């Protein structure tokens, strides 16, 4: 009966001949000593193709084991809810027999149920429960998990209906792969009318039913990587519209509000993205990651235990070695006692000899201390001399920097003076030109005198302006000369400082040679270049220019 029911649920053809052959017997009893599990694996499970109803298969297994193992004490959940918790346990349990669910998965499941009930998660309460659990066992069996949820320990204040709805929501998500579900309006393909349907989104399909009891299924929307979803503007009196495009059909759907519309669009887009990437549903991927993390932590813990055992073995070896060393020390102490007697006999003889050698060593030590004191004094004098030379070197560096800065200032003043002289020469040439033009104007005929007189007045005004500019240039040139004098004084001061430091350095063994300052004679700078003519020639040119100026006036 069991084999026949398993084959029916798993959609596998039943082979009664193989069953009879496997369990045949004779007058002495069963021919084969193999149990039911080899037959189950060979003739039933190996033929499963995966096209069976997993919920029905779970119900059959639940029927076989629930009556014997389910607690007789009253629970706050129904038998149907207990069945769903049992199926969830099989999904979250570890892959080893006997099956248990570890505390981390218990916390994950209780959190999901609490969130589905709309209550707040009590982390502190679960931590106390986890501590009590870890002290006694590694996890819970399926029946202990059903007792935990059915006791209402983590759902206080909630009624049976709320807990049942929460368990059903978690069951739909984890076991039935329901990513989202709810009522929406769908536009028909033939009559184009709008009908309310209960939509259920799974990893590769959207099914829609007449109501949420899922009894009357109206159709499916097959999803793949080529599908897409788009929001539509309101039309025909319908709001919150969106469009699901598949290869062969297009579906127009209207949500109840904008929030639901956005949630459905986001959920469908996420599902299509997972199909394109070939990724499993989010809860299965999260379970796999949690399992890998637990395996990693377990491996690290086993490694630590192995290292602790190695350290413990090494410690025991060290203890044995220390015991051996202690025995050796006891034997050595016995030998040392015998040698002590011999040493006391020779000590008296050696004491006199050591006394003489000690006196000799004291005399040698005293001489060495005197030599060390003398060397220390010489070293202190040498270090003092080195510090003086370093200080002198720093001051010399500062003096050289001052001299360098003074030379730079002198060069700047020279360039400024040259520029002023060039501007002054250009103005003088322009004035001479204007003066010659004025004399030429005076020698013109009387008929043009009146007109030329007006032009002369205008030129005289321009000449006055030019004279004022010339005076301004002369003032600037005087200021430049004063700056040049100040820079020259700084340079002389720097040169004198350099000279005094040169004498000091020469006094200390002449380690550094100073940079000699340049000539102190005044250099003349004109627009023709430095030292292009003497002071006498410059005075002669000035007298000639003043004479021409007086003649023009």
TrEMBL record:
PH domain ranges (all copies): 177-273
Coiled-coil annotated residue ranges, if any: 283-497
Principal subcellular localization: membrane
UniProt xrefs under PROSITE patterns: PH_DOMAIN
One Gene Ontology cellular component: lamellipodium
Keywords linked to the UniProt accession: Cell membrane, Cell projection, Coiled coil, Cytoplasm, DNA-binding, Membrane, Nucleus, Phosphoprotein
CDD domains: PH_SWAP-70
Record Pfam families: EF-hand_SWAP70_N, PH
GO terms assigned for molecular function: DNA binding
SMART domains in UniProt: PH (SM00233)
Gene3D superfamilies given in the database record: Pleckstrin-homology domain (PH domain)/Phosphotyrosine-binding domain (PTB)
Cellular compartments annotated: Cell membrane; Cell projection, Lamellipodium; Cytoplasm; Nucleus
The organism's place on the tree of life at top rank: Eukaryota
Summary of subunit composition and partner proteins: The SWAP complex consists of NPM1, NCL, PARP1 and SWAP70.
Function statement: Phosphatidylinositol 3,4,5-trisphosphate-dependent guanine nucleotide exchange factor (GEF) which, independently of RAS, transduces signals from tyrosine kinase receptors to RAC. It also mediates signaling of membrane ruffling. Regulates the actin cytoskeleton as an effector or adapter protein in response to agonist stimulated phosphatidylinositol (3,4)-bisphosphate production and cell protrusion.
Protein name: Switch-associated protein 70
Organism of this sequence: Hippolais icterina
Gene: Swap70
